[in-house]
Amino acid sequence: MKKSLFKKVTAVFLTFALLASIGGCGSKGKGGSADGSEEQTTITLLVNYDLKNEIDSILPTFNELHPEIKVELMDTDSGVGDTPTALSKLAAAGNLPDVAFGVENFAFILSQGLAYPLDNLYANDPDKENALQAGVDNYTYGGHLYAMPWRVQFNTIQVNQSLLDTLNLDDPGYEWTIEEFINLCKKATTNEYSGINIVTSSDNTHELSTKLMGGMLEAPLQMYGYNFETNQFNFTNGAWTKSIEIVEELQSVPGLISDELKDNDKRNQGIADAYELKFGGSADALLAGKVLFGNHNSWDTGWINKGVNFEWDIYPVPTAEGLEQRIQTHVDYCFILSSCPEEKAEAAYELVKFLSYEEEGCKARIDYRKTKLETSSIYTPASADPDVLEYYGQEGYAKDGLVYCLETISKDPEKIFIADANKLVPNFWNDVNTYLEQVETQIDSGSDPTSLAKDFENKCNMAAGETWANFEKKLEKYLDEFYASHPGEKAE
Hints:
Elements: H1 17-21, E1 41-48, H2 52-65, E2 69-76, H3 83-92, E3 99-102, H4 106-111, H5 119-123, H6 133-138, E4 140-141, E5 144-145, E6 148-154, E7 156-160, H7 161-166, H8 178-187, E8 194-196, H9 208-214, E9 226-227, E10 232-233, H10 239-251, H11 264-268, H12 274-279, E11 291-294, H13 301-307, E12 312-316, E13 327-336, H14 342-356, H15 359-370, E14 380-381, H16 386-392, H17 400-411, E15 416-418, H18 421-424, H19 430-444, H20 449-485
Parallel strand pairs: 1-2, 8-11, 13-15
Antiparallel strand pairs: 3-13, 4-5, 6-13, 6-14, 7-11, 7-12, 9-10
């Protein structure tokens, strides 16, 4: 994968210089080090409510490693998925933290000038080779690094291995094909069992068609046919239309998709629907072991772990016959706020490094998550450290399929398929969905997707081009402001 995904971006460092002048970061504390002999540097960390317990659990480990740094927690009632919105509110109030992490819409954070460039800090880190290179690549814009990978998640298919045995079906293994997936869905569909539980989603990112489309794309195309080298979409290579056809083929087989047997009108009238008649009640058929595949991802492991009593695993999304497998990966981010003063940046980076890829930090998080396997999603570290990978793969923690995914992308960044382009590209879905809704309406009315692909592609690319031009202008503006307040960061 290329060192920078965004070739068209001017080499820029981002900021809100104004925010620096209003004191958004915490100041140096006077508490001293562990032995009371040194002055501590105070770093404020934004803590989303849904990760509060985890951060509380791992901070003692950081304190042992860095007694010279005091971490003050800035609690927020926003979830980790709402970090961009939370930071916008804090910026307006002049009360930004020094460090934050999140899982959505990093491009918005960049467009607001809130990310501190990490080039110098990362370059001087003797352990930088332990950072997951795929994550470093993702958050490098125009040759400059703005965030470190914090956590990895994968698009996957949940597989009921016990049902494979019951139905005498061959296990396809992790390097399976879309053809094998389709055939197994059909073979597993009987009067008692179904091939898969769901294919649609309220979020287009997680539609089965989107995932299968990814399995039919060749590099350099990434999620939804997006090309980071040109900042354009490609819907005319056949993957988009073929993915729609596959889902329609699955939907045409009676009973293959378990959740499509549900009929809320009948249920509201107290009448048993097809779902209840087939599976013997309204309990979840997937958790009851009556569905071969779950259209679920690595972040769904908690509720699946809690609800099942059969052997199961998480498999990578299957790949089209003849294509090299790429693991569909989401890489979440951790970063320093641009309002953080230069004199505190090294201390802030130590915290980012701990939250990102440092061995002690990763192991502390794994230890915490071991106690939450039946209530929370599994934590997969964004680290290439061999000791961390071995710790992650220990028996009783990660599913074998997840270990396979992490080891694959750790060894070779080219094996990653960027499945969270919407996180990295400004207005990604906004530039698609208006036209996608129009296209889907036409498809529902009987139009052939192939006949619509070129027009769909052109409209999305026109919108994306305008978005990108505006994005670049914002980055250039914040570059000057950042250098004005952080002259030591300016390249010679």
